[in-house]
Amino acid sequence: MNGHNFTFHISDFKLSLLASLRSGDNPVRAILGHFVTRSGLSAFLIASLAQLTCALAATNEGDFDDIPAMAPPRGEIPPSFWEQYGLAVTLGGTFVLLLVSFFIWRLTRPKPPIIVPIEVSTRKALLQLRDKPETGALLSQISQTLRQYVAGAFSLRPGELTTTEFSEALATNEKVGPGLSSSVSQFLRRCDEQKFSPAIKPPMGAAAQALNLVDLAEARREQLRAAELSKQAEEMSKPE
Questions:
Q1: CA 61 to mean position of chain CA atoms
Q2: How far apart are CA 192 and CA 194, in angstroms?
Q3: Is residue 179 included in any domain, yes or no?
Q4: What integer best gives the mean pLDDT of the chain?
Q5: Based on the structure, what is the number of domains in the chain?
Q6: pTM of the entire structure?
Q7: Could you count the other beta carbons within 10 Å of the beta carbon of residue 225?
Q8: pLDDT at site 94
Q9: Which of 4, 41, 70, 102 lies at a 20 to 30 A Cα distance from 79?
């Protein structure tokens, strides 16, 4: 009788367990009930599995229901240095770079050549030759210096000309004038005679004479400039 009652109670427990496993909302319980029905496990094993399933379900339900405490809110992140001053730093750096580049360009650019007036350079060259012994080479250097000056001052055609050709060019140039043309031509002929003459002649003071001719030429140029200014003033004063 007791064994029968024990069997009955185990059977009742098994049936109630199966009913609870099948009727539960937990999917694990449903799977376990199905497995128990199929395999026919013992009541003790079934009870142990049921207790384990309930414990796991309670743990999982507790984990899902419990919301963890939230950390306190952090303070607002301040703007970075580039966010605050990025534009100013960029503009300032660009300005400094351009300023430095400008100064470097000013310091390294080639300087324009200093143009010395032709009369100044001619006088300087003749003064250096004045105190030297008057040889044929020195006379050639003096006459060549005077030729270059007259050609540049009065815009004569370039080219290597003989003394005769150069004298003809002077005589046909209205800017030079007959007086200056005659004086320069005579000086050049005397230099040639002094250079090529076999007889020894006393020094002619070629450098000093050349300096005097430069002064005459500069006076002539001043007359030409004054005449040009007077002509321009007359044209401006005429009524339209």
A1: 72
A2: 5
A3: yes
A4: 77
A5: 2
A6: 0.54
A7: 10
A8: 93
A9: 70
Q: How far apart are CA 176 and CA 151, in angstroms?
A: 10
Mean pLDDT, rounded, for 146-169: 86
CB 188 within 8 A of CB 147: yes
Question: In the predicted model, is pLDDT for residue 120 greater than 80?
Answer: yes
More confident: 68 or 172: 172
Range of 195's domain? 118-237
Take residue 170 and report the two structure tokens written for it: 């002077």
The secondary structure element, H or E, covering residue 184 is helix 178-196
Which residues fall within 8 angstroms of residue 74, CB to CB, at 6 or more apart?
none
Residue 140 lies in a domain: yes
Q: CA neighbours within 13 Å on the CB side: how many for 160?
A: 0
Look at residue 217 in the predicted model and tell me its pLDDT.
Answer: 93
How much is the pLDDT for 106? Answer: 84
The verdict on 227 and 125 lying in the same domain is yes
135 inside domain: yes
Q: Which of 14, 47, 62 is the last residue of a domain?
A: 62
Q: Is residue 102 part of a domain?
A: no
For 48-53, what is the mean pLDDT?
A: 62
